[in-house]
Amino acid sequence: xxxxxxxxxxxxxxxxxxxxxxxxxxxxxxxxxxxxxxxxxxxxxxxxxxxxxxxxxxxxxxxxxxxxxxxxxxxxxxxxxxxxxxxxxxxxxxxxxxxxxxxxxxxxxxxxxxxxxxxxxxxxxxxxxxxxxxxxxxxxxxxxxxxxxxxxxxxxxxxxxxxxxxxxxxxxxxxxxxxxxxxxxxxxxxxxxxxxxxxxxxxxxxxxxxxxxxxxxxxxxxxxxxxxxxxxxxxxxxxxxxxxxxxxxxxxxxxxxxxxxxxxxxxxxxxxxxxxxxxxxxxxxxxxxxxxxxxxxxxxxxxxxxxxxxxxxxxxxxxxxxxxxxxxxxxxxxxxxxxxxxxxxxxxxxxxxxxxxxxxxxxxxxxxxxxxxxxxxxxxxxxxxxxxxxxxxxxxxxxxxxxxxxxxxxxxxxxxxxxxxxxxxxxxxxxxxxxxxxxxxxxxxxxxxxxxxxxxxxxxxxxxxxxxxxxxxxxxxxxxxxxxxxxxxxxxxxxxxxxxxxxxxxxxxxxxxxxxxxxxxxxxxxxxxxxxxxxxxxxxxxxxxxxxxxxxxxxxxxxxxxxxxxxxxxxxxxxxxxxxxxxxxxxxxxxxxxxxxxxxxxxxxxxxxxxxxxxxxxxxxxxxxxxxxxxxxxxxxxxxxxxxxxxxxxxxxxxxxxxxxxxxxxxxxxxxxxxxxxxxxxxxxxxxxxxxxxxxxxxxxxxxxxxxxxxxxxxxxxxxxxxxxxxxxxxxxxxxxxxxxxxxxxxxxxxxxxxxxxxxxxxxxxxxxxxxxxxxxxxxxxxxxxxxxxxxxxxx
Length: 796
Hints:
The radius of gyration is 40 Å and the shape is elongated. Strands 2-1-3-11-12 form a five-stranded mixed β-sheet. 46% of the residues are buried. It starts with 15 loop residues before the first helix and ends in a 38-residue tail after the last strand. By secondary structure, it is α+β, with helices and mostly antiparallel strands. The chain is built from 24 helices and 23 strands. Among the domains are: 16-61 and 92-282, Penicillin binding protein transpeptidase fold; 699-796, 2-Layer Sandwich (Trypsin Inhibitor V, Chain A).
């Protein structure tokens, strides 16, 4: 590689003509000598008179040693399996012990920076005298005479400077700074070994292009570790510390090449390596293998999950008294942040969202996946990439989370909120067989919706309407939920009141303000995020156990010591029987007659669609016993304001009339179709018919049982039982059960009345028909008429 070649100065030769030409320099040398002789305690007597005493006074005012605070290190965010997600740092540094630095790297840095490092004390006297004289002769800074220990002191003062004034003082060209460095250098040499000093120096040093410390430099420039550096790599890195900007190989490769060869030549002069080896190595290219610096979530494989993690931790007071303190810890604490993310789930979610919503669409798609029973957030994806270029559809808003965690204000979730009224109704003991006539439009007096106690009554009237395609008719809780009939649920909310569903939604992780505690609650008038809705529905899957969403499980420091753990935060919010019944009802949404029929992916699944007025947002939240996933597509215009999805092309599909099932459901299906292979095959717990009124359950067969045994079997199944008087024809033994009404195998509500009929032991014989010949009519034909037969039994 072309370029000029420098030759290291001979440290043992100081031109006498420079000394003679600059007698004034000797006075300063005398000061240094005096300080050294006195151990930096009392200057050499008589040297420069008052000037020496002034320096002595300033030295006495300095602390005896410099506190070395932990070096700023990059923090890593990793997935649940330990794979990296992102790196956070102010200074891109990863500390390593000296034993993890290649010996050739140690030789290279000592050769070029302080070749007698292991022989001298805190100050290299020859080097200091040479530098003072040479720089004075040149009228500026030409050579550095500082030992590695002195340089380490300077870097320590600079890294620990908190103000601009302290930063300026750490690098100013003055005798006072040199004196201060000498004072601290001697203290370091007294308190620490040479290896400790060299290790700290290698971890402190700036190697250019945004990397600090030898490990980060090795990773950045050569994609290797400090312990595996080769001779040529070590020589180039050692040459950088003198001028990390000027010799930056990514910007000035020729200068970096020449500087590397100077280091190789110096190593040969000092017999650290053979001359032939140095010459051979000097002919080789730099051999860069750059690993890009990727600081922050924007470069993450899961950028918005990463952003969620950072915002989650910034709210934790255990990590610092202020947000700034917490941010400093995350960016300089060298933490390993272990998260709950599963990369496989993340990839599936990313692909699904990006398939059905494009970045530049006038809509945003978002989804969040939460594990029931732990709250672990497995993935988080959205259609708009993280970035600042709005023309490319980029955004810094995380649409999957609420605003306080870096998200938007949220979007109306539509009929997904019916699940909270459903759960409240079941908990209040309202039978699932409860039925209402549900017209296309229903006008109600708002005073008929009970508010929370002592909170006043709602006033006025309102007319509610069903969505297009919902047919008026009589519905029970099962069919009204499956078809998502608005006017049915308005009447159900009139029975539950508004207060309990509102409270329940907040207990399950939603943040529904008091102003939204209105009769319109049941139709999803409040704003919500996919993460909040997924967390709430995960509670149903966990049989009523609500767990707060959790993206982080532990923090470890650079020595792998636990800093903090984040255990799951769970509590039983709903009775398990109530949650089981909710699951039982919501399974019908994905079956024939349900609004999400066809979205079923092969495992037991429950869920709920949601569509707002004019399809401003469409939702589908589906869950298995071990994973809840809430997906959303919301219309957003160029100004960032909500708009209808109808009449727009979203993900290459024209949306004529958006719905939770047809518009957003495909995102859920695409992701879950991949993810289900990693989920254990579990089933929802069968609801308790003795606890849940009106639960639709099959009537067990009791034919041939004794009446007492049959009655117990039916009551254990959750039915009320009546035994009819008398006996009926039956082939079952006399006195046993002939049949029931409704009959075995039929489905009816728990608590319904089942009537038992007792056999008389004689099979029923169909009577033979008798024929009569009526008089013939003109042109007519004879007719036949069956007549009854068999004896009627009492109670039949």
